[in-house]
Design goal:
alpha+beta, about 350 residues, 6 strands, 9 helices, 6-stranded antiparallel β-sheet, globular, about 35% helix, about 15% strand
């Protein structure tokens, strides 16, 4: 998701999309679909047409503009269907998105090509961020009115709101076969002064269900205690994970970097924090430092949020440290292997 995409979505893309739908519907009224379908299925060359249609259906997600449709579908879907208020516990809950490997995503090893995971990650992250943080984005975007974001001198920051993808890491454990279904489980991992970190697990489809859904009921759930094969041992859910990715997002007002906690707070997902709040302290992520034990059954307060944020940050910091590898590039000072075509 590029910086400025969301800033253009409401005033530009949404009206254009609505106009296109209206025009398409208007034109469709003048088509005799029964005659058209009969000619398609029975006319000369029907076998080729049917095979082509079958191929397109199996590979729709790899067709031109399909990625754009998938991304903007996530925006529209959550604008129309998101509950008015999510519980604060939802902050670290998973967003689940299903997909299937198309034939055009299959490489010469006869499994899903590693490069295609990143397009799926775009879609999964869009669902998560739009659903969780959607209500907070207009608040930050209208900062001239709401005055949530200020620079170091205390001046109100203005500019168009946008989200930028800073980096993606993906670890592959097992392959996904052609036409095989899978699920992407994405959640907020942590955040620091600049970056919001998101972890996404690619999971075998249908093997794992959450214990419940926030807001609308969207499918079956499992009991909180799930046993494996009657043995009395808790299921190791990691055995269903085929790949795991970590991504980091930055929020912008113009060229000014917005602290992620401001966006999360504007979405109503941060409990009140004493002292200097969520932006205080040397790290810019709040004080005081004392934390209580996380109690899943207790009240969801700032100590539990901070404990979970720190737990995720212990992984995210290693990922963030890889930014330093940019300095390793020396421009081939000691030479290069060669320059090759068809890159």
């Amino acid at each position: 998701m590029a910086v400025g995409t969301l800033a253009l979505f409401y005033p530009v893309f949404l009206p254009m999309g609505a106009a296109a739908i209206v025009y398409t519907g208007h034109r469709a009224l003048y088509v005799d679909w029964r005659v058209l379908l009969t000619q398609f299925l029975t006319g000369p060359g029907r076998t080729s047409r049917i095979l082509l249609l079958f191929f397109l259906v199996l590979n729709w997600k790899s067709l031109p503009l399909a990625w754009t449709v998938r991304i903007f579908h996530s925006f529209v879907y959550h604008i129309l269907r998101r509950p008015k208020q999510l519980p604060q516990r939802a902050l670290f809950h998973y967003s689940v998105t299903s997909s299937r490997t198309s034939l055009l995503e299959t490489d010469y090893n006869i499994h899903k090509s590693n490069s295609t995971y990143f397009a799926d990650l775009d879609v999964s992250r869009s669902h998560l961020v739009t659903h969780l943080l959607g209500p907070g984005m207009p608040v930050i975007g209208a900062n001239a009115t709401n005055k949530r974001v200020r620079d170091k001198d205390g001046n109100v920051v203005t500019g168009s709101f946008g989200i930028g993808l800073g980096a993606v890491f993906c670890s592959f454990r097992r392959e996904i076969g052609p036409l095989q279904g899978y699920e992407m489980w994405s959640r907020i991992l942590s955040w620091d002064r600049k970056w919001l970190y998101i972890v996404t697990h690619f999971v075998v489809k249908g093997k794992v269900r959450p214990t419940g859904w926030d807001g609308r009921r969207m499918g079956p759930t499992r009991s909180r205690v799930q046993k494996a094969d009657g043995s009395g041992e808790t299921v190791d859910f990691s055995k269903y994970v085929v790949a795991t990715a970590i991504s980091k997002y930055v929020f912008k007002l113009g060229r000014f970097t917005v602290h992620p906690a401001l966006v999360v707070e504007a979405a109503g997902l941060l409990p009140e924090r004493p002292g200097e709040g969520w932006l205080g302290g040397e790290t810019g992520t709040g004080t005081p430092e004392e934390l209580s034990e996380m109690d899943e059954e207790g009240e969801w307060d700032w100590t539990k949020v901070e404990a979970e944020r720190r737990r995720g940050l212990s992984y995210a910091e290693h990922f963030a440290a890889l930014d330093g590898t940019n300095s390793l590039f020396d421009g081939g000072e000691d030479g290069a292997i060669g320059s090759f075509p068809l890159g």
